[in-house]
Amino acid sequence: MATNSLVTGLKVTLPVMFCVMLATLVYTIITDGLPLPDRHDVFTPWFVTTILDFYINIVPIAVWIVYKESTWSGSILWTILLLIFGSLTTCVYVFLQLLKLTNQEASEDPMYYLLLRDSIKDGVGLRDKNSLVVTARFVFGALGCVMLGALIYTCFTYGSPFHMELLYPWMVVLLVNFYINVAVLSVWVVYKESSWIVGILWVALLIGLGSVGTSVAIVVQLFRLSPLDPLYLVLVNNSNR
Description:
Layout: H1 2-32, H2 45-57, H3 59-68, H4 72-85, H5 87-99, H6 103-108, H7 110-115, H8 133-158, H9 169-192, H10 196-209, H11 211-223
Helix pairs in contact: 1-5, 1-9, 2-8, 2-9, 2-11, 3-4, 4-5, 5-9, 8-11, 9-10, 10-11
């Protein structure tokens, strides 16, 4: 029952988040114009830092999409859409994947079947001498360090981001876009943890630190794998390995 409720909840929440993001985007374009690069009122230092935060945060989503797609053309198309439309693409893609779940999959373990691609589901746990686990640890660790450096630099150079004047229209659009992706990533983070309390603490870290928190969460999960484990095992919880 709980697993079916999860699927139903996601099927309801994702379209709502899509509509919120689309409405916010359309309204801001109509009332404030396009965020062209020559608009210094839009491209403030904190806006640029938040853009970097946003794109680092969609790296794990993009990697998952590439993994899920059976063709390179599909992977490239969805990745381009993700880079351009951000959380709008995230909501659509995850929703379409949910629609592919059978009733049996939805009632057994929807997250497991949602996260893994079909060709892998029967071979979970096989060792792989060409595993990319170590590489992934380095990549996401480096991304987290880059973002942390950008945050520290912007804070020391331009001051705290917690000022009302920074909440201008396009910053609000960017933050809505950013936190919708955080909400999607948070579902995976909570799913991975055996304790709700630990899961909630991780979600708080994602909300408070953005892509730095995301990178830390992913690296911690990667260190729970053996270097010989296939990389896709980071997607599922321990009971499914």
